Amino acid sequence: MSDRELPNVSSTTPLFGVTFTISDNSTSENSSTSGLDEIIAANDLTSRANYAYSFLAGLGFIAGCFLLYSFIFTYRAQRRLAWLDGLLGAFCSIQLLLVLLSLHAVAYRPDYLRTTDLGCAALSFAINTASLCGLLVLVLIAYVLTQDPPSHAVLRKPGVCVALVILTSLLICLLLAGLRGPHNGLQEEGICFMDPVKASYADARFCLAFLVPYILQLGLLLSGCIRQWKSEGHFLHGSEEGPVFLAITSVMFFCQLFYGVTLRKDAHLETALDHQKRAFLSVAEFVFFSGSSASLLLVLLVHRPRRESLYSLFQQLRDCCQSPRHSQPSRNIIAPHIEITDTLQDIES
To answer: What is the pLDDT of residues 127-153, one digit of tens each?
Structure first.
């Protein structure tokens, strides 16, 4: 009896093992399918954001080129630029540079740029420097609008302002570059992220490259409001640069805030980023670069001299398109009239 039961036990053991193997395969297939769905959904989100930003970046690039042409044309015509116009022209040039630097994201997303650690660090340094220079130029515009310094003031000299903005931006970005790395090897190739997801780097970038410039702007605006209130005047009344400054600094604030908060939130996570969080961080990068394109469009549409330049350009194009048709004079076509007269001599002959 026992000899007959042993084969039964031995026969059921492999069967149980096969059943267990099949359940493992089904579980792994389900997990791989769900992981593939997450990757597809993340890539779809990144691609949609890429398409939307590409359209906005194209408009911003066209607006930036026209703004540069307008500022250069004004300078050549008048041999000088007003101080606020000069600062606004510098801001537009920096934002146009940021639009060009954002092409690395447009070209490779939903994938990422692959380059050496040194090249990736140089790209991140250039983007942070240009972004911080733009914010510091906005601080100078706020200073001129709210404090109305005299023409002989130190900050009204172009050389002093250029040196102050560039040196401050370089020092802060060098500090961020030291926190960023690379710490392994300069020539090692890998995936390039604009900003690493590190807690120390994200906190330092949020404080130095975002909070400090906007705290300075807020302090200048509040002091200007208080001074105008004491003098019973209207804040930014009669200034053509006032509305455009408020518009572009508000747009830049929300775009920079969204990216900075997203980077800090992901940097303080205890686990590695999954595909959805990495895709959302890519969307935040597109929002960050969208501030530059939106600012260029706002300067073109809100600033009255630039808007009038655009309107005059449209008028010239319309006149050029209509001139070939209206330049030809109207001609009266006269039908030929042949008159035959017979003289008396012809009849007699």
So the answer is: 999 999 999 999 999 998 888 776 667
pTM above 0.90, yes or no: no
* Assigned domain for 16 exists: no
Q: Using one digit for the tens of pLDDT, what is the confidence trace for 11-22?
A: 444 444 444 444
The CATH number linked to 279 is 1.20.1070.10
Under 8 Å between Cβ of 161 and 132: no
Q: What is the DSSP letter of 336?
A: P
Q: Residue 264: inside a domain, yes or no?
A: yes
Range of the domain at 228: 48-319
85-to-45, 79, 124, 222, 326 alpha-carbon distances in Å: 39, 13, 29, 23, 39
CA trace torsion 46, 51, 55, 56 (10° rounding): -10
The answer to whether residue 327 sits within a structural domain is no
Is residue 93 within 8 Å of 134, Cβ to Cβ? no
pLDDT band at 165 (very low <50, low <70, confident <90, very high): very high
